[in-house]
Structures are given as C-alpha cells and as structure tokens.
Amino acid sequence: MFSLLLVAALAQGPAAPPEPSASPQAPPVLPVPDAGVADAVVPPLPVASLPPATHELFRRIQGRVAQVRIIERRSGTKSSIGSAFFVSAKGHALTNYHVVSDLVLHPEDYTAELDRGDATVPVRLLAVDVASDLAVIQMDAPVSDYFKLEEHEPPQGTRLFAMGNPRDLGTTIVEGTYNGLVRDALYERVHFSGAINPGMSGGPTLSGEGGVVGVNVATMGNQVGFLVPVVRARTLLDRALEQSAPPDPAALMTSVKDQLMANQQRITDRLMATDLPKQSLGEYRVPGRWSPFLKCWGDTPHDPETPYTVTSYQCSSEEDIFLSSSHRTGVVTYLHQHVESQKLGAMRFSALYSTLFSQDPDAVAATREDVTNFRCKSEFVDVKGLTVRAAICLRAYRRFPGLYDLVLRAATLNATTHGVDTSLTLGGFSAENARKLARRYLEGLSWTK
Amino acid sequence: MDEVIFLEVLEGDAVHSRHRLDKLPVTVGRGYANDIILDDPKVSAEHLRLERREDGAVVLHDVGSVNGTFSVEPWAALKELVITPDTRVAVGDTVLRFRPRNFVVEETVVNEAPASARERLFERPRAFALAMQALVATSFISERVTQFQKTDWGDLLLASVVPVGLALLWAGGWSLASRIARRSFHFRVHATIGALLLLGFAVAPPLFALFSFSFSLGAWLGSVRTLAMLGLVGWGLYWHLRYVTRWSAKRVVRGLVIASVGVLVLTNVTELLGNEPFSEALEFPRSLLPPVLRVAPAHSMDSFFEDTKPLEKKVDALTKER
To answer: Could you tell me which InterPro entries the record lists for this protein (chain A) (predicted)?
Structure first.
C-alpha cells in the first residue's frame, strides 16, 4: 500500500507533443543575469533573497540533468528510463539503484546510456546502495556543469524543486515542499510534497539556490513524494570516488549482497534489542508493535449473519528494498487473527479455523529467478504451556546465498471454539537471524487464563 | 486325409463360414451351379473342383479360373494340389482352409463370470438401500460440519441429494454398457458400487485430516492418500467392469493396474523428472481439529527450532539444482 516505487516506466510513445514545461510565457520576475555562467566549473548561482522563479532555475541547470536509458542488448533499444544528474567534473552522476538494477543483475543483457539532449553517451556503473536506492554512474567525457550536494538538511517547509524526465516527456521541473524525514521509517526517506512521476526517478531535488537536497525515488500519489536524503548520496559518491577502477559485475553483486546482509543485521539487532510488546486479543496476548518502524492496524468485520467473529491485527514495515522489478526484500510483516464463536460447535469451528489456517499471507514479491520454492516443517509446539500447531517455511535467494525468506505460521490449540492464528513474514534475512526473530515472535504468544 | 473334411472360408484369422464336404467331388466358384458359392468378385464363376483320388487323397484342381488359385504358404500359383490338414488356399481375395473331422480343438475356457454362484454383498437388494441411505447421511453430515457460515437449509438439502443423483447417473451409464455387452442391466449393482465409491470420497478427507492432525503426520500422508483414492477408484472400476465385460479377473486387474500406474506417472511426470514448478505455496498440513483429538506430543520451543534447522540445507540444495 506504500512505496509505489518509481519503476522506470517502459518507454512509451509520446502521447502529447513534448513541450518544455517551463514555458517562458510568464514575465521574468528577476532580470536575467549573465548567461555565460554555464561554462564555469561550479557556476555561482545568484543568491536570491527569495526562491528564484522556476523558469530561471530551470534554464540554468537544465544541462546538468540527463535521461538514463537502460538498453537491452539484443533489441538494441531502451527497455526502461530514469533520470540522473551530474555531481562531478569527471562525469560522475547520481541516480536510483532501481533505475539501473538490470545492469547489476543482468550485466550481460543490459547496458546504459545517458541522453544529454544532443547526444547519447555510454555510461558505466560504479557503485550502488540498495537500501537507500542509490547508484553512481560515470560517463567518460568530462562535464562542465554539475550540481553541488548540500551539506545540511533544509528547514521544514522549504520550497524545493524536483527535476527529471517524467514518462519520457522531456526535462521537467516540479515545485514542492520539504517535509522532513519520514517519521519512524525503516529506510531513511525525505517526505516531499510534490508530484514525482515515473521516469523522474534518480533526478535531483534542489533548494532554491540550486543545491541538491535529495534524490527523487518514490511516490504515493496525490503530491506525496519521497526523496533519498542527500547525506546518503554524499556517502555513496565518496565511496565511488575512492575507487580506482570501475568494479566488475561480480564485485557489484558482492557489494549488493554485503549491503543486504548488513541491512538485515541492522533490523535484527534493532528488533532483538527491544522487548516484544504484548497486544491483547480476546483472551490471548500476541506480539504487538515491536518497533516504531512497524505500522499496525486492526479490524473486526461486524456481520450479524456470521456466526463467528474474526479480529485481525497486523503490523508491517510497509517499506521494502527494491532488488529488481520482480523481487523485493528487507520486509517484516505479521498478522494475527483471533477467531471466536459462541454459535458454532467444536467441529464446525474446526472447519472455520482450518480454513483460516490454510490462507497464507502474500509472499514477498519474487520470481523463480530470484528464490527457490519454500520448504516447511510443521509440529505441535508447547509455547510456555500454550499448545500451538506451528510451521516454519524457508526459501533461499538464488543470487544472494545466505539470505532467506521465512514464513512462520501458528495456530493456538487450547480451546474448542476460540483461537489465534498468526503469521510472520521475514523477507531477506540470514537463516540464523530469521529463526531468532521467529522464536522471539512465537514466544510472544500466550493465553491469559 | 480323413473321409469327411471341412472347407472354411476365412476372414482374417476367424472363420467366416464352414462347409461340411460329405460327398466329393465338390465345385467351388461364384456361379450358382457350384456346391459352394463364394461372393468374391475376383473369384471365377467356375473356379475349382475338389476330388477324391483313387488312393483316397483329396485333390484340388483349378478349373481354368481367371485370377488363378494360390497356395498360401509358400505363396505359389497352382493348378493342382493334394489337400493336407490345415492347408490354406487363396482364391481372389478369399482364403480357404481345409480341416479334417479329427481336428483337436482347444480346451474349454472356464467361465469365471458370475453365473449365480455366491451372491456378492452389493448384489443384495438391501445393500442398495443401505448404500444410498449412508451416502445421503454422510453427505449431509460432512456438508453440515464443514459449513461454518450461517446455515442455509436449501444448500444443505441439495448437498445431500446431489451425490445420490450422481451415483444413479453413473450407474445408468454402466448399466447401458452391461446391457450392450452382457444383455443384462445390473442397474442396482452398478448403483450400489457407485454409491460406495462416492461414500469413500466423502469419508476419506476427514479421515485423513484426523490422522494428519492427531499424529502430526508429515507430507508423506499426501502420497498415501493419493494411493488410497486410486485404490478406491480401482476397486469401483474393477467391479463395474466385471459386470460389463466377460474378461477374467486377472485381465481386469492387469488393465486397471496399468491404467493407474499410467495416471500416476502422467500426473507426477514433472516431479519424477525433478523439475518442480515454481510456487510460492507453503506446503504443510493445515487441518486443525479440537484439541482433544491431538495424540502427538507437543515439542518444546528448543526442539521445534532445532527441527527447522535442516530447512536451510534443503533450500540451499534447491539453489544448486538449476
């Protein structure tokens, strides 16, 4: 329900005539200063007391943003697009990992190039940060004009300008507001109130002075956009600049794996460091909101015709890491269903309870290229006096050995006409950590009588 | 050759018509003046004649036929041939065979089909009534117990009657087959067998769920269940076929075994070849029954998480498969 990731939109024929969105119809507010400033190394921008007119900003920096095209080798044409922006004179540019993920996962099938308006230039991938969804690419030619990364986060309410190439319609600038870091997020994001559209992924979001404060990454629609904080971009850029040579595909994969490993360790440590709070559900106590990054919801459908009630309580990180368009990872989500009936006898209740237990939560998105099939183990387990029927299922990542998806399913078996059915999904953890978390989770189940 | 011989007109390996040759000579041909008339357009009006020679041997003469007369083994045109037992001769498209009266026939096939010896359980009139009643009762109970929504009596009634209708329809089909092949409908017997089959289908799932739950049995119960269902279907088909065909019991069993193995192989061919299709399904037993029915002990947390450790190796092995 969250993070509609800006999967670089498949190239689509221009539906409307491509028109520059900054049309010079409105009379300029400020007189146009020296026009030759674009040739300077870090061009001094006019220090405006008020945010400059959008068209002014746009005209100055248009050349610093380029369209990234992922080229499928066999067809020789673009399979997806995104945006990128230059950050060094040596041709380094920043974009999103999800724009260039095909280069990481299928280096033999894809290449990338930058469309700079007048020409397309091949680029190579230098470094990626999957958890933050960032990548550094470089083209051979030096660039005369590039962006400066801001040192600090701007104050909340600052007017910002997101740039990019939405839906292949040409370079566009979108105005919005800085709303600070997303509260309690698992993966650091800036909340930007402005329209970010597919294809703008990887473009910069600028302050009025033209410094980069974030990288466009995702949207939830309705002017709710998300940016990667500039700190992350700076860290990754520094790492890329330190490299003597561009990494080979295997080294990139290893770096992705290491990042995923570190990320799951970070989440595990964070969860294991806190006590699992108890949520009461009927006569049971179940795992509650384990950590602030989990968002919890509950509901009981009321239907007078139904001879039973099912109360559900679910928590989810509501965020994930994009590995490829078909594969997500870094997910923690769980659901409890408390079932109770005064009207059903033991056998009919069992039928209802079995039906609920047969329904599994949606698995983390993945295809057969990404993961194996699940293997499960099911037993009756005594959880401190409470008998449950529990099953643990595991599947392995094919590309990143050592990472697994785990699903824990359990149903209490202490009464004939009520019970709690619970499921925990952990996406992209080491087997050891997943088991540790699942155990802590299962221990959170108890009966109050 | 014996005094009396038989001339057989063959059709493939089977005998189409048989003529007793009491007196010789005998003429054979398409014309109505012959003793034996062959309706083969390639046979001449006067084709051949059989005569007894002075030494007693029977001799065949071609009497100037258009297309000739041929001995079959070896194939050769002939004008004259001394007939020995089992001689075959081709005229036109027709093959003739000669047999003496002392030809020894094969032993009588013992009739295994039920004559009216021991009456089988499901042949009794009461078995039919009982099977139908049991089917209605079982369907009603299983529908009632597995239905946890607000009770819908219409659905419940329908669910109990439909299986009986199905059994009768099924029996109708088999009865027609019986009527055609054995000239007797056996409707009641077929209906009883059909009802027992459906009864098996209705009873097996809860039974297996009970086993699976009570003893915490693993996935292998699924294969046992498949085999049991196949056995049930095999049993039903066996008896239906016994009332439809005159095949011996062994032959029916052989046929059914081959068919079941075929079905098993065809439905599991992907697993047998080792390419498991990609699936996000979690495969573990899902039946939850009232706690009193649990017989298997509950494991401690430690042992449960210890038991799940091998999963890691199993899925790691899967990554190497491809």
So the answer is: Peptidase_S1_PA (IPR009003), Peptidase_S1_PA_chymotrypsin (IPR043504), Peptidase_S1C (IPR001940)
